[in-house]
Design brief:
The complex is a heterodimer of chains A (381) and B (87). Chain A contains 16 helices and nine strands. Chain A is of the alpha/beta class and 381 residues long. In chain A, strands 7-6-5-4-3-2-1-8-9 form a nine-stranded mixed beta sheet, covered by helices on one side. Chain A is globular and about 50 Å long. The two termini of chain A are 36 Å apart. In chain B, the strands form two sheets. A three-stranded antiparallel beta sheet of chain B has the order 2-3-4, with helices on one face. Chain B has 87 residues and is α+β, with helices and mostly antiparallel strands. Classes of the chains: A alpha/beta (381), B alpha+beta (87). At the A-B interface, loops of A face strand 2 and strand 3 of B.
């Protein structure tokens, strides 16, 4: 046991394993949570290395498995990974844009034991959807694949990332989900990491836009319930309009373990941006990584906390918020998440809110997530 | 009591050794079940009626007395949560 781990409360198993299979993706969404310099990471894990990660995670107690990316369908070995996941007893989730999916693959994955496919949309109409995704054919393909997923008997989960350019479509978005017979709809207001942080000013909705959308979601919930619909609408409010931070990842190294395409193991999918040396599954077992690595022990417990978190009576509830947000907004990941109105840096959140009230730039002002833009970030970084 | 509970599509019930309990898994979520909830859901196979499940549990736990009300109540809650469908 490392010195860091000795002071910690009992460390539970990683119940959630997120396998980011690749950073390759046919879409260019400007709010992508992948790192800005993703194009620098070219060496993906092999099939055998992923299979080992899945076995080790399941042995430790992981029950939920996400296949994500990038676009995970790009990986030709996805059916093999799905089959192994089922055989090991995972509940497996495929998080996809729908591009590259076919009816045959939907059926093949189901037969291999995939439990759930989540299809993302960018908007409720083809024009805006395709403009945000940076792809002319995306919307029609997504519609076709959402129908195929439903027809194959999977639970239907649709995901919309909400920002200032599509938030006005809320009633249309929910109507589209109803027509597609969704079981769950995630209306996830954009969180500002990766490309979304870079594009924050062009993405963040105003408080008024947000209040209107929230009211519309509540009205639609009532309408759906009155009509006997079982659709669950999950509206994720953005951190930037909260006064207290979220209990990010339910605590650092508490439930979630992400493995990035190159094998870097992370306590969340954004943590790669932190100035912390994270372990790699090529070098160590998941067990060593989870329990003993300095990276995973870095923010466990609360002995690392400075004020105002240290003496705060809510520190056991929110763990000081999000380390990545603290780093992005204050330059020091130890600081309280500036979302908290007790943070001495909370003015940065207030400034972002004021900017959102006056923002007017269109989609064309956003930096799209693609390899040539990514190369600019690591050459200048 | 004649109705037959069945897990809804997308819900998977299984024993998790690492957590020492039964869990119910669904898209990107997991419910940890306490002992009695786990024992009841372990009898759900899409074939047995509520009455049959009650009978089996009463045989297994004779010291518990009549279980009809508890089991039926729990399964109604599970239906309201959309974990199971009763047909």
């Amino acid at each position: 046991m490392t010195p860091a781990a000795r002071n910690q409360p009992t460390i539970g198993p990683p119940l959630w394993l997120l396998a980011e299979l690749t950073y390759r993706c046919p879409l260019q969404c400007p709010y992508c949570s992948n790192p800005l310099d993703y194009a620098q990471q070219e060496q993906e894990l092999t099939t055998e290395q992923w299979l080992r990660v899945l076995r080790q995670g399941r042995e430790m107690g992981a029950a939920q498995l996400g296949f994500s990316g990038g676009e995970p369908l790009v990986r030709q070995d996805l059916p093999d990974l799905i089959a192994e996941a089922r055989q090991l007893g995972y509940y497996s989730n495929l998080i996809t844009s729908g591009l590259g999916l076919t009816e045959a693959k939907v059926a093949q994955f189901r037969d291999a034991g995939l439990d759930h496919i989540q299809v993302s949309f960018q908007a409720s109409d083809p024009e805006l959807n395709n403009a945000v995704a940076g792809s002319r054919k995306a919307f029609e393909q997504k519609l076709a694949m959402a129908r195929a997923v439903k027809a194959a008997g999977y639970p239907m989960v649709l995901n919309f990332v909400i920002h200032r350019h599509n938030i006005h479509q809320m009633p249309d978005i929910i109507d589209l989900c109803r027509r597609l017979e969704a079981d769950y709809v995630e209306l996830a207001t954009c969180q500002y990491y990766g490309w979304a942080f870079h594009n924050r000013e062009g993405l963040m909705p105003s408080r008024q836009q947000l209040a209107t959308a929230e009211q519309q979601v509540n009205e639609q919930r009532q309408r759906l319930a009155a009509a006997g619909s079982a659709i669950k609408l999950i509206f994720v409010t953005p951190d930037y309009y909260e006064e207290r931070p979220k209990a990010c990842m339910n605590g650092w190294g508490s439930l979630f373990l992400t493995v990035a395409p190159d094998g870097t193991a992370l306590p969340c999918h954004s943590a790669r941006l932190l100035p912390i040396d994270f372990p790699n599954v090529r070098d160590e077992s998941l067990r060593q990584i989870w329990y003993d690595s300095p990276g995973f022990n870095h923010y466990r417990g609360d002995s690392w906390m400075p004020e105002p978190c240290r003496s705060c009576d809510e520190k056991g509830k929110d763990f000081g918020g999000c380390r990545c947000q603290a780093y992005l907004l204050t330059g020091n990941a130890d600081n309280a998440d500036p979302v908290c109105d007790k943070s001495p840096h909370h003015d940065r959140i207030l400034a972002a809110r004021r900017a959102a009230d006056h923002a007017s730039a269109g989609l064309e002002s956003l930096t799209y997530r693609n390899t040539s833009n990514s190369r600019l970030f690591y050459r200048s970084g | 009591m004649d109705r037959v509970p069945k897990f809804r599509p997308g819900f998977r019930f299984q024993w998790e050794p690492a957590q020492d309990c039964y869990v119910l898994l669904y898209p990107e979520g997991m419910v940890r079940l306490n002992g009695s909830a786990g024992a009841i859901l372990a009898e759900v196979d899409g074939d047995r009626s509520v009455a049959e499940i009650v009978h089996r549990l009463e045989q297994r736990f004779p010291e518990a007395g009549s279980l009809a009300e508890d089991v039926a109540g729990f399964l109604r809650d599970a239906e309201a949560q959309h974990w199971v469908a009763l047909s």
